[in-house]
Design a protein that fits this description.
Blueprint (H helix, E strand, L loop, with lengths): L8 H5 L2 E3 L8 E3 L5 E6 L3 E6 L5 E6 L5 H13 L8 E4 L3 E5 L4 E2 H7 L5 H16 L12 E4 L2 E4 L13 H12 L10 H12 L1 H4 L3 H13 L1
Antiparallel strand pairs: 1-2, 3-4, 4-5, 5-7, 6-7, 8-9, 9-10
C-alpha cells in the first residue's frame, strides 16, 4: 500500500539540487509544475506539493545525500515534540516532513513582523529537550526558526549529531537582547540582511571578535 506522499516521487526526480561553496544556499535545477520551493539551505532545498500540501519534501544536494539517513535518525530520537517538524519517511535523497505554517525569523526581519520574547524562550527549551535526548543542538539561526502562532518551531535538525558548539544561537540571542529593539516593527532591506549573513559567516576572517562584528552592524543600523 502506497503512502499519500508517494504521488510526488516522480516530480521530485525531475529536480536536482547542487551545493555551493562558502556556505552559500544551494542551486536548484529542473522543474516540476506541481512542486513549489518553500525554502533553501546550504545542503538542501524544501518543496511543497500542490497534490499533498500537508507534507514538505527536503531534497538534499547530490553531494550531501549521506545526511538524509543521519537527519532521519535525529528525528527518530527527538520523537514527538511541539518544537520540531514530524519526519514521516526518508528515501535516498529526501525526507518527507510535516509542512509547517509560519514565517521564518529571517522573513520576519525582512517584513518587520514582531518577534516576541516567547520565541527565544521556546528555543531555549527546545535546546534543553534536544540535550535530554543525547543530541547536540547546533545550526539554529534565523532561517531555521519559524514564528508559528507566537511560538517557535525549529526546522533543521541535521547537525544535531555533530560535536561542538557553533555559537550561532548564542550570538543570535545576544543580538536579540541587545539590539532587536532598534529594528522591531521595521522592515529591514534584503541587501542589509544578506550583508549581515555573509559577514557573520566570514567573521573570523574580517573581525577580531564577535563584539567587533556587532559594532560594525550597529554602525550600519545607525546610518
Amino acid at each position: 500500500m502506497e503512502n499519500d506522499w508517494d504521488i510526488v516521487r516522480d516530480s521530485l526526480s525531475e529536480i536536482t539540487v547542487f551545493s555551493n561553496p562558502n556556505n552559500e544556499p544551494v542551486t536548484i535545477s529542473g522543474h516540476a509544475k506541481d512542486l513549489k520551493c518553500i525554502g533553501v539551505g546550504t545542503d538542501a532545498a524544501v518543496f511543497q506539493s500542490l497534490k499533498v500540501p500537508a507534507f514538505a519534501f527536503k531534497k538534499y544536494a547530490i553531494n550531501k545525500v549521506d545526511k538524509v539517513k543521519a537527519e532521519a535518525e535525529v528525528y527518530k530520537k527527538l520523537g514527538n515534540s511541539p518544537f520540531f517538524s514530524t519526519c514521516f519517511a526518508s528515501y535516498d535523497d529526501y525526507l518527507v516532513l510535516s509542512y509547517e505554517e509560519g514565517n521564518t525569523l529571517f522573513d520576519c526581519v525582512l517584513q518587520g513582523i514582531h518577534i516576541p520574547e516567547q520565541v527565544i524562550d521556546d528555543v531555549e527549551a527546545a535546546r534543553e529537550y534536544v540535550r535530554s535526548k543525547g543530541l547536540n543542538p547546533r545550526d539554529i539561526h534565523l532561517k531555521n526558526i519559524l514564528l508559528q502562532n507566537g511560538r517557535a518551531k525549529i526546522l533543521d535538525v541535521s547537525e544535531y549529531i555533530q560535536p561542538g558548539n557553533d555559537f550561532r544561537w548564542e550570538h543570535l540571542k545576544k543580538g536579540y537582547e541587545q539590539y532587536y529593539h532598534l529594528i522591531d516593527g521595521n522592515s529591514v532591506p534584503f541587501w542589509l540582511v544578506e550583508t549581515v549573513r555573509k559577514w557573520y559567516n566570514q567573521r573570523n576572517k574580517y573581525f577580531s571578535s564577535y563584539e567587533d562584528f556587532l559594532k560594525a552592524i550597529l554602525n550600519i543600523l545607525k546610518k
